[in-house]
Amino acid sequence: MTDTPEKKRDKNAADGEPTPLELLRAAREQLGELTGRTPETVSRFERTDSGWTVEAEVVEVARVPETMSLMALYEVTLDPGGRLTGYRRVRRYERSRSDRD
Q: Which domains does the chain have, with CATH numbers?
């Protein structure tokens, strides 16, 4: 039988590991504090050998209309406990532009 989300959360807490939601909140808060920009969305969340990698999109330059705002994609690395160990801007783009194939 599979564990319910509550049981998984309790297991993580018992192991001393942050839950995925706690890790995402920590990444957003820490990146926001360092850059002064609050992430709007998270497009990647992945466990690595040294902790976690999160990719978050932020508004770098707000413009009117909003579709012309300048966005940035940041890669954030966290240790297993959720502390930020590094970040870098991966790319910048206008909000209305789609990814190239």
A: 5-94 (3.10.450)
